[in-house]
């Protein structure tokens, strides 16, 4: 027992190894034999039935478990988003005062993602999706917003202001960006997919395993963003 526990408290613990509890100083010296389970050498019958097959009616799908988790997160300041193959999730932040600080805190709950920050002087509009698109059929209730139009050109309509960051499943990421221009900043999470091979190299084992793990082409992040004045940062 760790020495930080008070001596009076330590005396309340009994630690046995193997079958020591059946010998002198064992359980019967402290507990009436009528209350000790039979599998510990007592007289109390402990009838624990063997488990059977769980009925399929009680099975729970991965989507049901995910929705419950999202419901719990909805009671906090964090938001949930799905990141799909070919459909990144994007958050728009309008900055009117230069040197304002954009902060973020997010957890990668499922899959691997790439995090980017872009700037544009013109306001993007949420991309309208076809109601029968593949992504909508696969996940009709997903929280996924796209702002960067496919017609936009990087370096012309918008620019990258931070180096892309690869984030692995289970990681918690915090960061900030001091804005240099007014306008619209877009925080983007997109699906990470590593190239399995190039013309000069063979596929690595870890890359192959990573590709198998993201075979569902769906990731999930929980995130929180805030804009602070430079004097408050």
From TrEMBL:
**Limits of the CRAL-TRIO domain:** 1-48
Q: Any idea where the GOLD domain is? A: 74-227
Say which domain of life the source belongs to. Eukaryota
What is the protein's given name? Answer: SEC14-like protein 1
The taxonomic lineage of its organism, from the top, reads: Eukaryota, Metazoa, Chordata, Craniata, Vertebrata
